[in-house]
UniProtKB/TrEMBL annotation:
Pfam families: CbiQ. Signal peptide: none annotated. It is a multi-pass membrane protein. This is Cobalt ECF transporter T component CbiQ. CDD domains: EcfT (cd16914). It comes from the Bacteria. PANTHER family: SLL0384 PROTEIN. The chain crosses the membrane at residues 43-60, 72-89, 109-130, 233-251. It is found in: Cell membrane. Keywords: Cell membrane, Membrane, Transmembrane, Transmembrane helix.
Length: 253
């Protein structure tokens, strides 16, 4: 994990949130999501409070609203599922705009939309302020099993390697006048996929042998030992602790 690595979700900046150690941000995001999920769905006002907290955190990180919202589009399939729930759920019915909807389905749709949207927003905010390499170091610092951290690290790097290999193969096909226009070209695309698999497998073997020759014995060396001060932990705890206070009021009021 010594090489730098950027991703499209990350937005370079120098805000107080960007400068927090990655393991502090990961722990704060996880705690915030747990608190949101633990909130009763009937406490509608509490979810509005969580949205305000996320907005404040995004403002502190200097992440534009448009940047955040565009990357939250990954939630669209879950939104479509939630929209169907009032129509297919059983139980007591209620008339809304001339449509017969399930009361339990409406509450279920609200539960999925509210908690899912807040969870996605928190995750996108984390990814927007933390590089992938830093996320892996943070997980390592939080004592996630080393094997899982290594798998995640290799997956990220090989994802880029395979994508770049596929791009070069696509350029080679186009330079020879090939353009997929129908079913009759599927054979060429299938051969491309097969060649990509073989090349990726062979490259993986070469990389592994190179690592072994350099002393790899099942664990990656720790190059950057990321630490956090008490003040940084306190700053990162503002979001989940405030959310916890809102959650407790949601259960009692």
């Amino acid at each position: 994990m010594g090489a730098g690595h950027a991703h499209k979700l990350y937005r370079h900046g120098h805000s107080p949130v960007h400068e927090l150690p990655p393991h502090c941000k990961i722990a704060a995001t996880f705690a915030f999501v747990v608190v949101v999920v633990s909130t009763p769905r009937e406490a509608v006002w509490a979810f509005a409070g969580y949205a305000v907290l996320i907005t404040a955190a995004a403002a502190a990180a200097r992440i534009p609203a448009g940047f955040l919202l565009r990357r939250m589009l990954i939630e669209v399939p879950f939104v479509l599922f939630a929209v169907l729930m009032p129509f297919v759920s059983q139980g007591e019915r209620v008339e809304v705009l001339g449509m017969s909807l399930s009361v339990s389905g409406l509450w279920g749709a609200w539960n999925v939309l509210a908690k899912g949207t807040l969870g996605v927003a928190a995750s996108v905010l984390l990814a927007s302020t933390t590089e992938l390499r830093a996320l892996l170091l943070g997980l390592q610092r939080l004592k996630l099993p080393p094997l899982l951290v290594q798998i995640a690290s290799f997956m990220i790097r090989y994802g880029d390697v395979i994508t770049d290999e596929l791009r070069r193969m696509s350029i080679a096909r186009r330079s020879r006048g090939f353009e997929a226009r129908g079913v009759r070209h599927w054979g060429v695309l299938a051969k491309t996929a097969g060649a990509l698999f073989i090349r990726s497998y062979e490259r993986g073997e070469r990389v592994y042998l190179a690592m072994v020759s350099r002393g790899y014995a099942g664990s990656m060396p720790v190059i950057d030992d990321v630490t956090a001060t008490g003040a940084q932990w306190a700053y990162s705890a503002v979001l989940p602790v405030t959310a916890l206070a809102v959650c407790l009021m949601g259960w009692t009021l």
